[in-house]
Specification:
- With 416 residues, the chain is of the alpha/beta class.
- The protein folds into two domains: 146 residues, Aspartate Aminotransferase, domain 1; 255 residues, 3-Layer(aba) Sandwich (Aspartate Aminotransferase, domain 2), CATH 3.40.640.10.
- Strand 1 and strand 2 form a beta hairpin.
- Helix 3 runs parallel beside helix 4.
- A seven-stranded mixed sheet has the order 4-10-9-8-7-5-6, sandwiched between helices. A four-stranded antiparallel sheet has the order 13-14-17-16, covered by helices on one side. A two-stranded antiparallel sheet has the order 1-2.
- The protein is 38% helix and 17% strand.
């Protein structure tokens, strides 16, 4: 097991130094930020890019002939092209800017699915889903009489693939699944899932909010139909999401919202829409966030996914092995660490999860507590919430050691 005194060379770089927020103190303690599944912190170059937009070329896009608008438009479209190459989409037309992962899923549900699915058709989701990949499909089911079916999980938190095989039928028109569980960190076998779904002629949407910062994405190799993620979970700004969709499906989707930017010609009674991707991008987008997201992508690419995975896997192994030695701690989703990213869900026996979170916060340690926006999964374990530790590439062995010792102290003082 790796320890702080025997780190591999790939852990030597102090990546936290690039993040201004991590240099502060909370209650006179150095901040240890372990809520990365909720949102990652931002490196200085992302912050500077946001500032640069507002200081140097703040203007709307695609709407004016002046220089500032031209610069802003070029930077937005450069980001689109950068994302296309990053996830290996076939064309920039397949990259749609949204407000976040939630907005991207709702866009697909309220356009493609609403138009193409009929009463009695079935949508498959899983028990692992974030509320953002449950509620939009519930709303569609209530509106159109579509049947929503749920793939269960095994006791170790992994998806029950035998149940998936049984639930996947000729009636299945859409499969909407999370790539990586935001509560457990478990990686679903999405390539296998996509192949099986396509064999039944079902369309597949994958929620990549938890995978985009941690592993390479290749939408063409996977042959996935829709892939969604948020910039803020990948060291980028808030308020920006990405919907990738195969062009053939995006072409079928009517505009979700009407307004400026998505129209080519307007009369008082009829409008002609812009081609992709603009017909699905009504109004002023989060221009500053889009431009600054380039720097977040560069940050990830400069480190490289190979190194990111090595760092985060070493930290996960270290954390789980230390936590497993504490009898008062219950861990959830205890599958093989090779099938996980750095997310650990736990509870302390005899203590409420919120109390644990507050006591950690008093020691400068930021974790998530509660239902984690995955209430059906939390209910499966018959608890009213959990404590979640989620790691990023800037976390260290020292962060983990301090956190584990803090948990021990909390248990000794407040536990039963």
């Amino acid at each position: 097991m790796p320890t702080p005194s025997s780190q591999d060379s790939f852990l030597d770089t102090n990546l936290a130094a690039a993040f201004p927020i991590l240099q502060q103190k909370i209650y006179q303690k150095s901040l240890i930020y372990l809520d990365n599944a909720a949102t990652t912190q931002k490196p200085i170059q992302v912050i500077q890019a946001l500032q640069q937009y507002y200081e140097q070329y703040n203007a709307n896009i695609h709407r004016a002939a002046h220089t500032l608008s031209s610069i802003a438009t070029r930077n937005v479209e450069d980001t689109r092209a950068m994302i296309q190459q990053w996830i290996n989409a076939a064309t920039t037309e397949e990259i749609i800017f949204t407000q976040g992962t939630t907005a991207a899923i709702n866009l697909v549900a309220q356009t493609y699915a609403k138009q193409q699915l009929n009463a009695g058709d079935e949508i498959l989701i899983s028990l692992l889903e974030h509320h953002a990949n449950i509620v939009p499909w519930q709303m569609l089911a209530q509106e159109k009489g579509v049947v929503l079916k749920v793939i269960p999980v095994k006791t170790d938190g992994t998806l029950d693939m035998d149940a998936f095989d049984q639930l996947l039928t000729a009636k299945t028109k859409m499969v909407a699944l999370v790539h990586i569980s935001s509560t457990l960190g478990i990686i679903n076998p999405i390539e296998q899932i996509i192949q099986k779904a396509h064999a039944r002629h079902a369309v597949v949407l994958i929620d990549g909010a938890q995978s985009i910062a941690h592993m390479p994405i290749d939408v063409q190799q996977w042959d996935v139909d829709f892939f969604v993620f948020s910039a803020h979970k990948a060291y980028g700004p808030t308020g920006l999401g990405i919907l990738y969709g195969k062009k053939q499906y995006l072409e079928m989707m009517p505009p979700y919202q009407g307004g400026g930017g998505m129209v080519a010609h307007v009369t008082t009674h009829q409008s002609k829409y812009q081609p992709l991707p603009y017909k699905l991008e009504a109004g002023t987008p989060p221009i500053a966030s889009i431009c600054a997201f380039q720097e977040a992508i560069r940050f990830i690419q400069t480190i490289g996914y190979t190194k990111i995975q090595k760092i985060e896997h070493a930290l996960l192994v270290y954390a789980q092995e230390l936590l497993q030695k504490i009898p008062a701690i219950t861990l959830y989703g205890t599958t093989d660490v090779k099938k996980k990213i750095g997310i650990i869900a736990l509870n302390v026996q005899g203590m409420h999860h919120l109390d644990v979170g507050l006591l950690l916060d008093a020691r400068g340690i930021a974790v998530r507590t509660g239902l984690l926006c995955t209430q059906p999964l939390i209910d499966y374990w018959q608890v009213d919430g959990m404590v979640r530790i989620s790691l990023a590439v800037y976390n260290t062995f020292q962060d983990i050691a301090i956190t584990v010792q803090a948990l021990k102290n909390i248990i000794q003082k407040h536990g039963t």
